[in-house]
Amino acid sequence: MQNKIAHAAERKTFELILDGVMKYTKKERTKGFIQVVNAIEKVLGDVWSKDAYDKMREFLGTDSKWSRQLEHIIDTVDPHVLKTLMLNAGYEGGFRGFRDTMKNAEKIGCDVPYVVLFDPTSACNLHCTGCWAAEYGKTLNLSLEDMDSLVTQAKELGTHNFMMTGGEPLVRKADIVKLCEKHNDCAFMIFTNGTLVDDAFCEDMKRLGNIWLSLSVEGFSSATDGRRGEGTFDRVMAAMDKLHSYGLVYGTSICYTSVNYKDVTSDEFLDMLLSKGVLFSWYFHYMPVGNDASTDLLLNPEQREYMYHRIRAIRDWEGGKPIFTMDFQNDAEFVGGCIAGGKYYCHVNANGDVEPCVFIHYSSANIHNMSWVDCLHQPLFLAYQKGQPFNENMLRPCPMLENPGRLTQMIRETGAVSTDLLSPESSEHLCDKCTAYAQSWQPCAQHLWEENRAAKQATAEAKSAQAAE
Ligand code: SF4
User: Fold this and answer.
1) 367 C-beta closer than 6 A to ligand 1
2) 136 and 49 within one domain
3) Which range marks the domain in which residue 87 is found?
4) Which atom of ligand 1 is nearest to the CA of 357?
5) Which residues, 6 or more positions from 106, have their beta carbon under 8 angstroms from its beta carbon?
6) Is the CB of 387 under 6 A from ligand 1?
7) Is there an atom of ligand 1 within 6 Å of 360 CB?
8) Residue 425: inside a domain, yes or no?
9) For the segment 394-442, what is each residue's pLDDT rounded down to a tens digit?
């Protein structure tokens, strides 16, 4: 009880500080945000390293593309939405929740994910080529009670950041709104095809403040419509305009392949997204998951190296574009490699199966007949945690894509089974599709990783020399 009161008081304090900062004039805002970082460090200083807090202060105190972008966000996003997301995703999830998940991991004897991704439904209003949602087979749903129980149990362990995918989550808009309304101290990011975004849902997003969207696109209209169906691109663009008019937070989710990788990172494409008010873009490497998945869309080493440099150039301190880009396969160094299996994240499909990752469809735990704590203790998750990082080279993080033998071994040892109800794929079949890819990527990954380490070392030496002067 005492803890709950202290928590509420702490949240209120941060809320008041944020209210104050948002009222500041542009000139004073930087100072205000540095005050926020100082306050967080004072209260929750043990969560992140001192270096991380220093980096945040440096970021805020330096005039750069990103500090200017922060100004732009404050000026364009609805203040209630911005404050709620900062409090829920940042304070509750990123700081307090992160600390609690770490503490609870020690208590329960296995890692506690800081983000949980779940599928409200496997149903979708579109029929996209190669979508993993279709791979699970028939239409399945998590009831509102299932989702509520999952979020409630996860919250007890500290998790406050949730994501939804599917299927198309917005097929279940009404239940999602009820869930987000009840858990108004959590943040929910929804991966959506965007075609079901309407005024009523935007009103709900604005009222609640704790929902943000990531809209799927494959490129310009021919690529998006080619995969998702005629007219989809225009509907996604219209959804972005609507979200923008309500001052909501949204970005894009892009699966890059050997075919579209240059288009989806071109200046022209990014300028188009910026003109639509997109704030971030998550880039996902194509994964050949499913019995019928093609390997032709896997990138060759030159193509993947292009992505490595290009994504970093786009989000650089200056130049590039003011859109925050993250490449989940080439950015593993920032999170210590693979984050799946409950280390920082896991996935619950619409059948309730608790899987290590949205791309890894194997499990021996289900939320319908096990508690959340028991699901986290499933043998496959423990095997993940024992094996992580799967490679010292963070450009080879995955036990499937870059280290295919590791996944087959874990599945064999733990007896986890395929969660694809229609066409179960053996881990051998899945990993065999990645073997040639992994072998060809290895030398390039080695050379890039050595270069990366040398550059980091040089920066650290220059900084300590500067400090010594
Ligand atoms: S299993 Fe592979 S795709 Fe999933 S988080 Fe780990 S590295 Fe990424």
Assistant:
1) no
2) no
3) 2-99
4) 4
5) none
6) no
7) yes
8) no
9) 999 999 999 999 999 999 999 999 999 788 999 999 999 999 999 999 9
Q: DSSP string of 409-437? A: HHHHHHT-EE--SSS---HHHHHHHHHHH
User: How many distinct structural domains can be found in the chain?
Assistant: 2
Q: Whose CA is nearest to atom 4 of ligand 1?
A: 357
Q: How far is the CA of 339 from the centre of ligand 1 (A)?
A: 7
Which ligand 1 atom minimizes the distance to the CA of 358? Answer: 4
| 138: confidence class by pLDDT, cuts 50, 70, 90 | low
Axis-axis angle for helices 65-76, 50-61 (nearest 10) = 80
DSSP character string of 92-154: IIIIIIHHHHHHHHHHHTS---SEEEE-SBS--SS--TT-HHHHT-S--B--HHHHHHHHHHH
**Residue 468 CB partners (closer than 8 Å, separation 6+):** none
Q: Is 105 a pocket residue for ligand 1 (Cβ < 6 Å)? A: no
307-346 pLDDT tens trace: 999 999 999 988 999 999 999 999 999 999 999 999 999 9
Band of pLDDT at residue 123, cut at 50, 70 and 90: confident
Residues 305 and 342 in one domain: yes
Contact predicate 251/280, CB 8 Å: yes
